[in-house]
Amino acid sequence: MRVLLSNLAIVTVLTTPALALAAQTATGTVKDYNKASMSLTLSDGTTYQLPKGFHDPGLKTGEKVSVSFDMSGKNHEAKTVKLIR
């Protein structure tokens, strides 16, 4: 039993950092989309930096979106932005 628990503890410790690096997802309403600064702000005030080569799916104020992002320090770096219809 001790061997099983110690193995489980080791697996948990080794997989936790990988889960922390996984992209997160948020949904919300577009408050502002700035093509010049490549940023997207949702109605909750969170601003996401969009990646180079971002293809605008038709973002407009008031549109509902789903944003997949990673955290880089205090910055939210968007990976994908999809309209929710």
TrEMBL record:
**What are the protein's UniProt keywords?**
Signal
Secretion signal span: 1-22
Q: Name one Pfam family in it.
A: DUF1344
- The organism's superkingdom is given as Bacteria
- Classification via InterPro entries: DUF1344
The name this protein goes by in its record: DUF1344 domain-containing protein
Could you tell me which species this protein originates from? Shinella lacus
